[in-house]
Amino acid sequence: MCRIAGIVDKSKTEDQLKSEIKAMCDSMAHGGPDDEGFYFNANNGIAFGHRRLSLIDLSAAGHQPMFYNENKYVISFNGEIYNYRALKASLLNLNHEFNSNSDTEVILAAYAEWGIKSFSMLNGMFAFSLYDSTSNNTYLVRDSAGIKPLYFSAINQQLVFASEVRAFEHANQRYTNNKNWKIYLLAFGHIPEPYTTYTEIEMLPKASYLTWAHSNHTFEVKAYQSLIPENKITDYTEAVQVVKQSLKNAVRKHLYSDAPIGAFLSGGIDSSIISILASQILKKQEKLHTLAINFEEAEYSEKIYQDLISSQIKSIHREYSVSKSVFDEQFPNAIAAMDQPTTDGVNSWFISYFAKQNGLKAVLSGIGADELFGGYPSFKRMGLVEKLSKLPRFILKQGLRFNKPILKRAYYLSYKNTCGKYLFLRGIFSPDEIALLLKCTINQVDEVLKNAKIGEMNSSLKDAEKASWLEYNLYMQNQLLKDTDAMSMQHGVEVRVPFLDKELVKFVKEIKSDLIYKTDKPKGLLVDAFANLLPEKIWNRPKMGFTFPFQKWLSKNQEFLSILSNNKNEKVRNLTEDFRNGNLHWSKIMAVYQVVGDED
After folding, report:
1. Rounded to an integer, what distance in angstroms lies between the CA atom of residue 315 and that of residue 306?
2. Contact predicate 341/181, CB 8 Å
3. Nearest 5°: CA angle at 220, between 152 and 451?
4. CA distance 519 to 542
5. pTM score, whole prediction
6. What's the N-to-C CA distance of the chain in angstroms?
7. What is the per-residue pLDDT across 220-244, written as a single tens digit (0 to 9) for each?
8. Distance (Å, whole) CA 35 – CA 204
9. In what side-by-side order are the strands of the sheet with 202-203?
10. Alpha helices (H) in 235-323, listed in sequence order
């Protein structure tokens, strides 16, 4: 796990490229504290940069950028390839030679053997740049689940890319502030892919690769994988066995590491299953390290469930308590760590902060289970969403007349598209509120959101399948994964997500949807797959989710509130007072805080 950056610009001297790529990498040193490296090609104006967080092959042989086949190919790679051992065995049989034990070299050898077809053969979380001197092309490639970020800008016959948007500030290129990002943030609670705070910088889509032709300075983006649900598995017993075996295999692969690795243990279904499986796999070698956060506020604590699992698996368990004073002290650091504005991510900053203190370089997380197995309220609400969506636009637009948030958000359904359905379910502010906060018109807000290029789900999907599509491709993609990566890498900690293992996702998509979602318990298929291991106390209780007492703590944080209460905008001041009095959710005030902070 690392941070990468690159510049392709023939108009720049080698000294300019060296200076800029060094500055880009330095701005992301937190995500690659172990080593740095650079590659320069003056003829084509290429500069690759790399900051390394060593997890597989900790030796100098894993140094990047890495070369292969007499320097015909060079790569700067961020991530982990979980099937690299199997690929390496195949490549050895094809007479390929290796100088390291790293997964990076396997990517190069696979490309040398199979070309761009090799991208779809990789199972892992990754973002990399690869220069092929034989074709004179540079490729940018991102994993199939979009776990690792890769931003790029392609303007003025120049390609710039990086793991974080903040790195582009050092590329000596003038970027335009995206005037729509505040609308996205106030509506979604984040800036959805492909958008960023800059008009010219966007996220490379997941399961895709960009080809930059050095011969004529042009590029194109293509998908290397498209997963289409097949519903091959129609028997519940078979489905249980498929989930059981594929998740075990996924956890086993995600434990590959030459550095200390542990697991986040919240006490919920997902992290408990991951911890139990990891402990079983490691038992012959070492004990699993588990990590938990708790609070003085009992209603937020899941300690009894964490203790139940840590005792069952006899893990080396570390528990950290976050008090209001600790939160107030570190909150500014968590905000500063955000690469892009978001209403979430602070919790991930803290758990990664403690993982670093515990000497862990990598941790396993349960992200992805709710989206795949029906763990959110949206799975039960989607039927209502579809019925309401059929109402005429003029009726849905009347939602703005109400004060209740869910009724106001019905306005979004008047868009008659995927974005509208998502914002009805998970939207932060309604268009009239956004207009007041930004001093623009509702029509301007509508124009931005109705035309947002965030993807369209297939209308033929069943209701629960639609909910899964929205949660997987929008909420998880744009909020959970992006925030987790930014916040964990701020501490030089890698978060691995076994539930998003490529093979596991493929198998789950082959299961008839009714077997997954029409169960008599939360995430029933997943729970039944591990019924012999998972205590009933873990799954037979209300879902809590991994959250902090934000409402209580932020409402008493005077420094936070003063920035808002002194704002010239009356709507901002009114919302601040509502929050202070307990009448506004913390996610809303966090969105306002980021918009207001940008004005200073």
Report:
1. 11
2. yes
3. 70
4. 16
5. 0.95
6. 35
7. 999 998 777 677 899 999 999 999 9
8. 26
9. 35-41, 46-52, 2-8, 158-162, 151-155, 202-203
10. 236-254, 269-282, 303-313
